[in-house]
Write a structure and sequence with these properties.
Length: 471
């Protein structure tokens, strides 16, 4: 789509305002809105300014001026706004150098795709993330020097079987039994269907939706695979639509990995494959799980750099309350066909070459898709270039292995701090081709330590009062 095409779309749809969206470093969409009178083709050529010092992970106050350049290929009628609104995703530029901004997550994704092509290994990489989330009926939380608490409520929650609801009809989903009950136990069928249809209307291809394993409204809506950059765009639209449709129905949506104690958390299993000239390079009919040697080397890269990858793929302190054994959490850095206890699973649903892919299971939806997908690709390409052997597959339930066998299996880190330390030691593979830059790595590490790890580490946990108040 050209800038002229965008203007024609705005006219055809009777657009009244134009919304410009971009991504901060941790992964949230930011935006501001223009009058249609201020929107013309010159905006695509000259950009529009904003204060980069007010955006997380961006500029310092003495260097705050930045530019946004709308990408005409992202033009869509906003699916949320009541007033006809044209939505455009933007790239961030430095006004002094006129170059794209190194800390713009979308730019990292663009460079990762370019690096794949320049490598000669392939020309396209496809990603298919499976985002899980919770829909709660209410959430309250607060924390200061003298108090800290959260209260979650869900009409589906197993803890509400005895609640006075005038009447309580008893259809509550038991812990770990949310996969796949029909209505009336699944109260969210129509809500998810509207989310799915809204996403499709917004240009995001959806394959399926369903209730997930946990009680209290855990859901999944699966997007059809797409290219790295496009999937980064789609992931932001996905969260935007889910949150806003939820609000319309009186729910609140969260992509927090582990909001509930004692039940499954929300993961984001990521399917991926590399193609060249229209052929899937991961397929070999005679290979283990019908995987080619190139695909196994890609797996080798994911497993070798798995600890460092978690700094981007499971980037919250809360992520590591999900990444524990016993909750379908893939903490084991091994690979296997069909085995959901392995970090890398090879789906075996079909024997068609086009469907062959690997699934990296430790990530969760608190990540920034542009950055996490790019990091996974760079790890996989490092595995291919250096022919990293992933070892033998593990086709047993790893959670039930004898102790002597279990000790030999490596695991993802047990905390965000461990993952950040691993990234600090192991990030050269990310710097290849200038895809990630040193300033991005340094700012990410500093932000995670100062804004997330330390504030959580230094606060007393509410349960500590139960354990220790009477010591």
């Amino acid at each position: 789509m050209t800038p002229k095409d965008v203007l024609e779309l705005a006219k055809k749809k009777n657009v009244q305002v134009v919304d410009l969206k971009f991504n901060d470093l941790p992964g949230l969409w930011q935006h501001f809105t223009l009058s249609l009178n201020e929107f013309d083709e010159g905006l695509f050529e000259g950009g529009i300014g904003f204060d980069g010092s007010s955006i997380r992970g961006f500029q310092k106050i003495q260097e705050s001026d930045m530019l946004l350049f709308p990408d005409p290929n992202t033009a869509v009628i906003d699916p949320v706004c009541k007033i006809p609104t044209l939505s455009l995703i933007c790239d961030v530029h430095d006004p002094m150098t006129k170059k794209q901004y190194t800390r713009d997550p979308r730019y990292i994704a663009q460079k990762a795709e370019a690096y794949l092509k320049a490598s000669g290994i392939g020309d396209t990489v496809y990603f298919g993330p499976e985002l899980e989330f919770f829909l709660f009926n209410g959430i309250r939380f607060h924390s200061n020097q003298s108090e800290s608490y959260y209260f979650i409520d869900s009409n589906e929650g197993a803890w509400n079987t005895g609640k006075e609801e005038n009447p309580n009809l008893g259809y509550k989903i038991r812990y770990k039994e949310g996969y796949f009950p029909v209505p009336p136990s699944d109260t969210l069928q129509d809500v998810r269907s509207e989310m799915m249809l809204t996403l499709i209307e917004s240009g995001v291809n959806i394959e399926v939706h369903h209730h997930e394993v946990a009680t209290a409204g855990q859901c999944e809506i699966d997007m059809k695979f797409d290219t790295l950059l496009k999937m980064g765009d789609n992931m932001l639209m996905y969260k935007y639509v889910v949150k806003n449709v939820a609000k319309k129905y009186g729910y609140t949506a969260t992509f927090m990995p582990k909001p509930l104690y004692g039940d499954n958390g929300s993961g984001m299993h990521v399917h991926q494959s590399i193609w060249k000239g229209g052929n899937n390079l991961f397929f070999d009919k005679d290979g283990y799980g019908q995987l080619s040697d190139l695909a196994k080397y890609y797996i080798g890269g994911l497993l070798k750099h798995g600890s460092a990858l978690m700094a981007f793929c499971a980037p919250s302190t809360n992520s590591y309350k999900r990444l524990v054994p016993g909750y379908e959490a893939p903490v084991n850095l091994v690979y296997s066909a069909r085995n959901r206890s392995a970090a890398v699973r090879i789906p075996m649903y079909s024997e068609k070459p086009a469907t062959k892919r690997i699934e990296f299971r430790p990530p969760d939806p608190s990540c920034n898709g542009y950055i996490a997908f790019s990091a996974m690709l760079m790890a996989g390409l490092d595995g291919i270039k250096n022919r990293i052997d992933p070892g033998n597959p593990v086709d047993k339930n790893i959670f039930e292995l004898p102790a002597n066998e279990a000790r030999r299996i490596k695991h993802v880190p047990g905390s965000l701090e461990e993952s950040i330390n691993a990234l600090e030691k192991d990030h050269q593979f990310l710097l290849e081709g200038g895809v990630f830059t040193k300033d991005v790595i340094d700012v990410w590490i500093d932000y995670k330590r100062s804004a997330e790890i330390d504030p959580v580490r230094l606060r007393p946990h509410p349960y500590e009062f139960h354990l220790y108040f009477d010591v």
